[in-house]
UniProtKB/TrEMBL annotation:
The keyword Nucleotide-binding applies. The lineage of its organism: Bacteria, Pseudomonadati, Deferribacterota, Deferribacteres, Deferribacterales. Residues 7-239 form the ABC transporter domain. Transmembrane segments: none annotated. It comes from Seleniivibrio woodruffii. Gene3D superfamilies: P-loop containing nucleotide triphosphate hydrolases (3.40.50.300). Belongs to the ABC transporter superfamily. Keywords: ATP-binding, Nucleotide-binding, Transport. It holds the Pfam family ABC_tran. SUPFAM superfamilies: P-loop containing nucleoside triphosphate hydrolases. This is Manganese/iron transport system ATP-binding protein/manganese/zinc/iron transport system ATP-binding protein. Signal peptide: none annotated. GO terms for molecular function: ATP binding; ATP hydrolysis activity.
Length: 248
């Protein structure tokens, strides 16, 4: 497989029950691309992300990361899951959580080095959470927690970053902090794949979009994916909103 691509997915089918959540999905993501995954609720977006991490069992299909089977490339990808999946009632600080990104690099017999601390500091800086370093993670808003998880992912030093709905339910300040992080990471050559719910901003935020509803309906630049017949097929019933969008 071609190592020029950050991610290659070929003929991927994933089922939890009798009906596949993803059916025969194939696409490639180039190094350094900023890609959005869009599609309605239950379309299989999170499942696709988990498949790219090798977290779900595949019925059929292959996933390659930098040209190697995903199972051999653990650690190359950092992941920020969809929110609401973790209850943070632990006595850990913002700094501790970001440091978890370094655990894969730490030797078990020693504490974080000066270099580890610097990496964590700059990751927290990047997501604009430096002022909250000593705060317990449970005492932050959802949007702030989200930024801390992004800092942890950045501290991991991975070349690919997968984010599952980072913009869902955040305020304007967090939205702009996240956008800055995406821009900075892209500048650093990191490949970014982001599940995104808001069609109104999708074409502005991403270089390329994957439109998913069990199957991959379209992949390419927003201008190619935002076609009325495609969107109306995938988002049945909500067509009016998108007609307005396409006009706007
Ligand atoms: N662990 C699981 N066990 C059984 N079914 C699952 C599991 N995870 C997801 N599903 C089902 O697979 C389908 C795809 O789910 P997935 O979470 O990937 O969708 P999604 O596009 O991320 O949705 P949302 O926009 O609501 O986050 C849904 O029908 C869902 O109910
Ligand atoms: Mg999801």
């Amino acid at each position: 497989m071609n190592a020029e691509y950050a991610i290659q997915v070929r003929n991927l089918t994933v089922s939890y029950g009798p009906k596949p959540a993803l059916l025969d999905v194939s696409f490639m993501i180039q190094k350094g691309e900023l890609v959005g995954i869009i599609g309605p609720n239950g379309a299989g977006k999170s499942t696709l992300m988990k498949a790219m991490l090798g977290f779900v069992r595949r019925d059929i299909g292959d996933v390659y990361v930098f040209g190697k089977p995903v199972e051999q490339t653990r650690g190359a990808i950092a992941y920020v899951p969809q929110r609401g999946t973790v209850d943070w009632d632990y006595p850990v600080t913002v700094e501790d959580v970001a440091m978890m990104g370094r655990y894969g690099h730490l030797k078990w017999w020693r504490n974080p080095s000066k270099a580890d601390r610097e990496i964590v500091d700059s990751a927290l800086e990047m997501v604009r959470m430096s002022d909250f370093k000593k705060r317990q993670i449970g005492q932050l808003s959802g949007g702030q927690q989200q930024r801390v998880f992004m800092a942890r992912a950045l501290a991991q030093g991975a070349q690919i970053l997968l984010l599952d709905e980072p913009f869902a339910g955040v305020d304007a300040a967090t939205e702009s902090a996240i956008l800055d992080v995406l821009a900075e990471a892209k500048k650093a050559g990191i490949t970014l794949v982001v599940v995104h719910h808001d069609l109104a901003t999708a074409s502005e935020y991403f270089d390329k979009l994957l439109l998913v509803k069990q199957r991959l309906y379209a992949a390419g630049p927003p201008s190619l994916v935002f076609r009325q017949e495609l969107l109306s097929e995938v988002y049945e019933g909500k067509l009016k909103v998108f007609t307005d969008l396409l006009k706007g």
